[in-house]
Amino acid sequence: MSDPIMVVENVTKVYERGGAKIEVLKSVDLEIYSNEAVCILGASGAGKSTLLHILGTLDRPTQGRVLHNGLDLSREGDEALALFRNREIGFVFQFHHLLSEFSAIENVMLPARIGGVSEKEARVRAHKLLTLLGLEARKDHYPTELSGGEHQRVAVARALVQEPKILLADEPTGNLDTENSRQIQELFFSLKTRLGLTLVVVTHDANFATRFPRRLMLKDGHWN
Ligand SMILES: Nc1ncnc2c1ncn2[C@@H]1O[C@H](COP(=O)(O)OP(=O)(O)OP(=O)(O)O)[C@@H](O)[C@H]1O
Ligand SMILES: [Mg+2]
Asked: Which residue's CA lies nearest to atom 17 of ligand 1?
């Protein structure tokens, strides 16, 4: 077997609030292989989002390491990590985070523009993705003019505009009806096949979870 694309090694995360310490993750290990589809399950507050943020270098562990292709990301500075995220990781947040003052297509273009892609090329990429996701007619709409499912798909398009190898998604079907949820599920697995993506998805959705060959359950700060 090849080496893992991402490794979480002995990761502990402690939050401090008002003098109290909460140990959310306790010595968690995780190895993710290229083109794998992994699903992370667990009760509300179990630390799923925390782990996904650490995996995506949006947050740093209190202890332990995160490696990408053998490179220890915990030793990298914030600027290097921002570059790493922009190039290698697509992130779909639990609460979309679309920017309200930008249209759908502008939201999708943003990571590409930040990554130094020309306006023209970014627009071509964003247009292609929005079309692929059935949102061509919505491309000039602002977030307030989009439905929940459309929001979610724009967030997925934005996560893919830099052609990442790894897609991390936090409850991508949360708050969606059955039909929209099914569409997102189909989309993820077709993207995995077509783009060779590695998928790490946090979900409460039992139906979605059964589609993953590998399911992991977080409980009390470690794997159950
Ligand atoms: N910045 C923070 N400061 C203090 N505590 C935090 C912080 N972020 C998260 N927590 C706490 O850490 C725990 C895990 O939070 P996390 O968001 O990872 O849970 P989750 O498994 O994603 O839950 P959900 O399914 O509800 O999204 C929670 O108890 C939460 O209150
Ligand atoms: Mg969460």
From this structure: 49
